[in-house]
Every structure is written in C-alpha cells, then in structure tokens.
Amino acid sequence: MHRIIAAVLAAGACASSLQAQTDRTVAPPPVLTLAEALDRAGASSPFQGVAAAGIRAAEAQRRVAGLRPNPSIVGEAENVAGTGIYQGLRSSETTIGLALPLELGGKRGARIAVAKAQIGRAGLQADIARADLRLRVTQTYNAAAAAQRRVIIAEDQVGIAAEVLRAARVRVQAGRASPLEEQRADVARISAEGALERARRSAEAASGNLARLLGMPVGQLDRSWFDAVPSTITTRPMATSGTLTVAAARADLDTASAQVLLARSQRVPDLTVSASARRLEQTNDVAAVFGISIPLNVFNNGRASIAVAEAQREQSDAQQRVALLDAEQDVATTQADAGNAATTARNAAGPALVAATEAVRIARIGYREGKFGQLDLLDAERTLLDTRTAAIDALAAYHDAQARLERLTVAAPLPKDDQR
Prior knowledge:
By secondary structure, this protein is an alpha+beta fold. The protein is built from 10 helices and 4 strands, in the order H-H-H-E-E-H-H-H-H-E-E-H-H-H. Helix content is 68%, strand content 9%.
C-alpha cells in the first residue's frame, strides 16, 4: 500500500514538473516596446561616444586657447674663432638670457571666444546625435514591426491558398470543374509559399538590424503601437527657429564671428622682450643685456586673413537662413506625408478592409456552391491581400513620417545663462 501511494506521489510530482516545463516552453516571448528600444539604444550606442569625444576635444581646445606663449632661453657667443685677438675664446662674450613673447591686441581673449563657440557647437552636435539616434531606432523598429506584420499576412495567405486548393480538388474530383482550376490553385499556393519565405527572410533581416542597433536579441515587437493611428491629423504651423538644425547653423555663425575677431586681433604685432647676462672673457665681468623685438607687418599685414574670416561669416549667415527655410519646408512636407499616410491607413485598415474581407467570404461560399468561378475567388483574395498590404505600408509610412517630424522639431537646449 505504501509503495502504491509513493508511486502516485512521484507520478504527480513528475506531471507537475512536466507541466511547469511545458508552460515555460510555450510562454510567449516578451514584447519589446519602442520606449524600451530607445532606452536600450541610448545606453549602449557607440554614436553617443562619438558625440562625447567631440565635446571633450572642444573643451581641451578651450584649455589650449587660454595658454600663454612659452618663454625661450637665449644663448649667444660672440667674438669666437676669429683672427688676431679674437682667436679661440680669449675675447669671447657669452650671453645667456630669457625671452618672453607678449601677446597684444586681445589675441588670447579672441582664441578663448572661438573655443567657447566651438564648445557650444559640440554640445549641439551631441544633442543632434541623440536626436538622430532616436530617429534611427524608431525607423528601424518601425521597419521590423512592419516586416513581422507582413509575415503574418503571408502565413494567412498560405492557409487561404491551401484551402482554395483543397476546394478545387473536391470540385475536380466531383466532376464540377476542370483540372485547370486545380492547377491554377496549386500555382497560387506555390506563389503564396514563396511570398511567405521572402517575408520571413525580410523580417529576419529587419529584426537583425534592430538587434545590432540595440545590442540585444529582438523578439516580438509591439503590435498595438504599430496599429495605432489617430482618427484625425491636424496640420498646424510649427516654429522652427528654435530647433536643433537652426540652432546648429546659428552656432556655426557664432564661431565664424569669433574667427573674424581673432583675425583682427592677429593684425596687432606681438612684442618679445628679453633679459640676459653677458660675460666678458677678457675681464671676467658680467653685464646685463635687455632687448625688445617688434615684427614689421610689411608683407603680411593680416588683411587677407580678415577678408577670409569675414567671407566665411557671411557664408555662415547665409547658411543659417537657408537652414531655417529648409526646416520650414521639411516640416510642412513631413506633416503632409504623415496626414496622407494616416488617411490611407485608416481607409485600408477600416472600411476597405471590411469590404474586402466580406467580398472574400461571399466569394468562398459562392465558389463552394458553384455560383462563382475560381477567377472570381482568386480576384477577391488578391484584393484582400492588396488591401492588407496597403494598410501595413500606410502604417509604416505614417510612423516613419511621425519619426521624421519629431526629429525635425526637436527643440535646442537653452544656453546655460538662460536656464533658470
């Protein structure tokens, strides 16, 4: 009796363990949302390292710009290796001293101003890199989600083609249709299987691209996000003067303006002062020697450098206006693209899809009852497939346009002096 009870308990434990293992096996993989993908990419992407290195380089350049010129050690020997009393070192005069360049015209301050402008531009470049990364992740996620949906449609199409082939065989065996219908249905099945294979391959490539971008395996994606489309799209003017793109052009103009001031400061010649001690060999006396050196701006007076800097500043000013114009045009165009894609998606996934599904249902019933021909059924099936495909394409286009619109309208951070 005890052995029977022990066997029953052991069997129950094994069954429980097997059931738990089965539950773990069939448990659906976790769904990766877009927010999780963005967080993952922001934490592990190498693009952030590129932007951070640019900021460090600009800050190092600021420290270099603040350094003063190095002094020089001056050594001279006069009246050496001559003739008469100047043979050998008997009448030599040795001078050892220190020469110190003195920057005039505000060169150091102008260099610092240029370096500060470059630091601001590097900070904006880091913000641009983050915005570009967000756009890239969103577009890659969107492509992978659309590819997974296309696989689902292709799988459904294979099942439909198999059902049509089965119905055609029944009709042919019953003598109600010619063998041509069975062959046509078999061709449709083969085509559907080929489409499924291509869809799976494309989905694997899209998921692989997303996995490489995130640095982690990618399973199922958020279908609710992909299917979401607003009922209405309101197109309204958006201010683009404070966006990252325009702010970057403005930062380039600030840098060019600082370069003009630097070029003007370099027209002022620098002084080099020196103080030395001279030893006279014949009397063994020591005397002080002071000197000053002033360059003459004869051949290069700095006007050409100022002309170059001013031309570059004018170019940056024009590029800023072009960037503002391009941003306004891109925002307007992208808003229209998003609205058109949303309208197409609502129609294709709504009334058009309902009508196409109902047409297929009626065609299947009529085909089985001999009221409709096979070509009518295949045409209804093709219309349903085209409608579902158009819905996925429109949803993908809508999300892509929304991602591009979000990237175009990212606001630039306020300067530190303006942040309160």
